[in-house]
Every structure is written in C-alpha cells, then in structure tokens.
Specification:
Elements lengths: L1 E6 L8 H14 L3 E7 L20 H11 L4 E4 H6 L5 H6 L12 E3 L2 H9 L2 E5 L1
Helix pairs in contact: 1-2
Amino acid sequence: MKFSVVVYASPYSNEAAISALNFSRAVISKGHSIYRIFFFSDGVYNANKLAIASQDETSIQEQWDTLIQENDLDSVVCVTSGLKRGIIDEKESKNSELDCSSIMPSSDLSGLGQLVDAYDNSDRVLNFG
C-alpha cells in the first residue's frame, strides 16, 4: 500500500509530529511505501535545520531528516507556510538577501500542488496534527 503523510503539528507542541514519524517508520518496516511527506502549517518546523534540542532530548527534526534520507522519501515543505515561519531554502534566502537557509537538506519547498498530487497518487493519506 502507498501512503502519504501530512504533518500539521510542530515538533514539540504535542504528540502529533512524533506520532507521524513513528507511523512512517512502521509503514516502511511493514513493507509499504510512502509516496510523500508533506509538512504544512506549523508542521514546517519539523524541517527546521536550525533547531537545537537539549542534550537530554532527541531532535525530532534530525529524526525526520534521517528517516527521509535513509529511505529516499519525497519530503515537501509548504512554501507559503515555510516562508511565514522562517523555513527557507537557498533560493529564497538569496531572493530575500539573507545569509543562510533553514530547511533540512532532505526536504524541498513547494506549493499545495504537491499535496494534491499526493492525494492522487496514494492509496491512503494520513493527517497528523
């Protein structure tokens, strides 16, 4: 079965983001596939490479990045949600004359068309948050 996962919740606001992460791991471990991870609204904070977890905490952002890279998953950050929350790539950084990007290298900024595409190409789309 082919799944897509939409994450609306920020990493540390409630259990939704970690539940989405654990669900995604379980799907892969059971031999299913993930068509796309889509970070939307406050969920874009899950792709923030500038967030630093305390030494005694696990970085949810790093866990997402690892899962996405190790499994070669398509990961999209909603461009509008990301820009409003400071999650930007190199292109947007240059356009805004900033000196760094803040998006994890495993994710891309893109529009809602990618979410519509995920619905069209997945057997199931699960929303978290």
